[in-house]
Write a structure and sequence with these properties.
The protein has 16 helices and 17 strands. It is an alpha/beta fold. It binds zinc ion.
Length: about 450
């Protein structure tokens, strides 16, 4: 088993209740195989006994960031749908653009987005996209951890459920356990009840989580109530998808009665604040969700609404947006923001017992940050710097599953020049937009 020593770091920890930031100065993190074995004061471990040593004096070690909802290959469409309403965003831009996709595009798009995320300190992504078999190949090659679902629309019928079943059987728990498969129907407004029930049956039969968009904006909830007397959350409850382990993307338009149902069921919520700001959407009611005990995690969504896959920006916006909406700067303080970025994001993915903390027994998904940049100086408060000042370029070294995948800002398993060349090659074909060729129509 490979052994790894992170030597003499400042290790980020939070108090057990998550209310305080408690950095451990001059600590070593010892890794054996995929897991952390010890977090201990420097001076006890002999570096010559380890296969790899990362000298981290003056640097910060913290859990890798977790992106709880993305469509990573959409980096291919960055900048192609700006300043438009949600209806036009789907009907005139995204769904026509996606009719251009070949499996090969998804592969290179996934590698491009994965390279961006790893260099920015993101070690896990819950992704929801088409051709996920090649997406899984890219994730396996990159060294990243992923919860991967093959996106499905109800109009695709049983064939889509069959494809998903084959995908799950082939890829769940693959890549040394780094890949978890998920069942990924698109949303209650693009999947009829029978299709949602069929998806829930797959969750039961295969023992994997569901990942779905729900109540993205309040208008969806209102329309659903008008049309059928049920909120999108109630639709999920009646069709069997509102359950322990389900990842709900956004939940910006939920009602107080929905929040009760969500808490009872034990779902987690993925929160992508930059997308909500850009599309002028409602905002996930994080304080109410957290008060009800619901896990809320950070997300970027796809890069056509979010432009980058930068979770530091999401972290900052998550805290600021709640302060702004509440008109109270005390809302969502620093320790809580860091809790959401680490342990709570892990809880959204059902992995709170093994991800999101630098702790013995946890999986070794770790990042080493250099906060020596001028934008951190003088560094009075580590927590404040992590939430409000940190840039992806502050990330020096990234470890996933005990393996170093980025060392001193160099990717070890992905050649960025090749990936950019391959992703750009198809740019003209991918950017064609024929609205009549859209793969779905947005009618919530
Ligand atoms: Zn999404």
């Amino acid at each position: 088993m490979t052994t790894l020593l992170l030597l003499d770091a400042t290790v980020l920890t939070l108090s057990p209740d998550g209310s305080r930031v408690q950095p451990l100065a001059h600590h070593d993190v010892l890794v054996e195989g995929q897991r952390i074995t010890h977090v201990q004061p420097t001076g006890q471990a002999d570096p010559s006994h380890f296969d790899e040593v990362v000298r981290a004096a003056g640097r910060v070690v913290m859990p890798g960031l977790i992106n709880t909802h993305a469509h990573v290959p959409m980096v291919l469409f960055r900048g192609l749908a700006e300043d438009v309403s949600i209806d036009r965003w789907f009907n005139e831009f995204i769904w026509p653009l996606e009719s251009n996709l070949h499996p090969d595009d998804v592969y290179w798009g996934m590698l491009l987005g994965t390279a961006e995320m790893l260099l920015g300190g993101v070690t896990t992504v819950a992704d929801h996209y088409f051709h996920m078999d090649v997406g899984a190949k890219a994730i396996a090659e990159s060294g990243m951890r992923g919860v991967l679902g093959w996106a499905m629309f109800g109009s695709q019928g049983q064939a889509a459920l069959d494809t998903t079943e084959r995908f799950v059987r082939q890829h769940h728990n693959s890549a040394d356990g780094r890949i978890t498969a998920a069942i990924a129907p698109h949303a209650p407004y693009t999947c009829d009840d029978d299709f949602l029930r069929g998806s829930a049956r797959l969750v039961d039969a295969l023992g994997v989580p569901a990942h779905i968009h729900a109540a993205e904006v309040r208008a969806q909830t209102d329309l659903s109530l008008q049309k059928r007397g049920l909120t999108p959350i109630q639709v999920l409850e009646q069709t069997g998808l509102l359950r322990q382990g389900t990842i709900l993307a956004h939940a910006c338009g939920v009602l107080p009665s929905d929040i009760e149902l969500m808490a009872e069921a034990g779902v987690g919520v993925a929160h992508a604040p930059k997308t909500y700001l850009k599309l002028g959407m409602d905002v996930t009611p994080i304080p109410a969700l957290r008060q009800a005990g619901i896990a809320v995690g950070l997300a970027t969504d796809g890069a056509v609404s979010n432009n980058t896959l930068d979770l530091w920006e999401a972290l900052r916006l998550c805290a600021m947006l709640q302060k702004d909406r509440a008109r109270q700067p005390e809302v969502l303080p620093i320790a809580e923001a860091l809790l959401i970025a680490t342990r709570e994001s892990a809880r959204v993915l059902g992995m709170a017992d093994r991800l999101g903390a630098v702790q013995a027994g946890y999986l070794a998904d770790l990042i080493v940050l250099d906060l020596g940049g001028l934008h951190h100086q003088p560094l009075h408060d580590l927590g404040a710097s992590l939430v409000y000042n940190t840039l992806p370029t502050d990330v020096q070294t990234v470890i996933v599953n005990g393996q170093i995948v980025v060392r001193d800002r160099v990717l070890r398993r992905i050649d960025p020049a090749t990936v950019v060349h391959q992703a750009s090659r198809a740019m003209q074909r991918l950017a064609q937009r024929v609205p009549a060729q859209r793969i779905q129509t947005y009618q919530p």
